[in-house]
């Protein structure tokens, strides 16, 4: 009899212990570990550190103006506006004006000037850093519609008829080259650009930067009497080329 009572007492105690410990265990299982903060709190911290909108900047390219001052045949100037999103992406719009009035290597006088347009996106590889410098890569779509003049003097080669190198200026029957003067020919070009560069913070809201542009022509149209020598925004006419930019940038106070 005593053994049955003792067995019943032990069973009852075990049941009571299990019932008493279950709420505590359930409460502990619902409590997050002290070393791992809640995901919502971490997300709020990230949003504060990297806001979606982080300002608008305006950049002026000085490379084209400076190179013209030092004797280049080409003049170009452009203004770029970009929006800093999430401290890493930069939708960017670039408006520029380019032109030339010079003689090329073939002895042809070429004149052209027109605006051009680019639109694209930059990615800042240093967006997680605390300092305000930028290392970016980007992609652009660009286009230019322009008029150009071509003129040349007559240069005769009575033996070979090789002329000055432009097939449109060579007389295939008599040899030599013909007088050539055509104005107001229309041309256009579309191209893509792959860009890499840096932008360094120098003082308050001012930045300075360098960049390289690798340009790849996608489509073009030219005049009836010859290809253009220079395309505003693209450079020398061809399938691809490379350009350099040197920019001064100001971050707007909003």
Automatic annotation (TrEMBL):
It holds the Pfam family DUF6048. InterPro entries: DUF6048 (IPR046111). Keywords: Signal. Residues 1-26 form the signal peptide. This is Outer membrane protein beta-barrel domain-containing protein. The lineage of its organism: Bacteria, Pseudomonadati, Bacteroidota, Bacteroidia, Bacteroidales.
């Amino acid at each position: 009899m005593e053994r049955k009572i003792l067995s019943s007492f032990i069973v009852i105690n075990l049941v009571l212990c299990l019932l008493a410990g279950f709420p505590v265990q359930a409460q502990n299982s619902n409590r997050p570990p002290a070393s791992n903060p809640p995901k919502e709190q971490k997300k709020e911290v990230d949003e504060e550190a990297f806001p979606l909108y982080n300002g608008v900047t305006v950049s002026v390219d000085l490379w084209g103006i400076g190179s013209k001052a030092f004797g280049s045949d080409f003049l170009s100037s452009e203004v770029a506006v970009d929006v800093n999103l999430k401290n890493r992406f930069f939708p960017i719009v670039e408006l520029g004006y380019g032109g030339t009035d010079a003689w090329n290597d073939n002895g042809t006088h070429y004149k052209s000037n027109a605006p051009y347009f680019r639109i694209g996106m930059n990615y800042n590889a240093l967006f997680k850093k605390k300092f305000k410098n930028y290392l970016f890569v980007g992609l652009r779509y660009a286009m230019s519609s322009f008029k150009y003049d071509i003129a040349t003097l007559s240069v005769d080669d009575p033996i070979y008829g090789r002329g000055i190198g432009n097939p449109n200026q060579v007389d295939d029957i008599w040899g030599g080259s013909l007088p050539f003067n055509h104005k107001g020919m229309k041309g256009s070009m579309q191209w893509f650009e792959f860009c890499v560069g840096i932008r360094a913070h120098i003082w308050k809201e001012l930045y300075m930067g360098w960049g390289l542009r690798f340009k790849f022509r996608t489509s073009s149209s030219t005049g009836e009497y010859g290809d253009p020598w220079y395309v505003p925004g693209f450079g020398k006419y061809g399938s691809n080329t490379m350009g350099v930019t040197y920019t001064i940038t100001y971050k707007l106070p909003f």
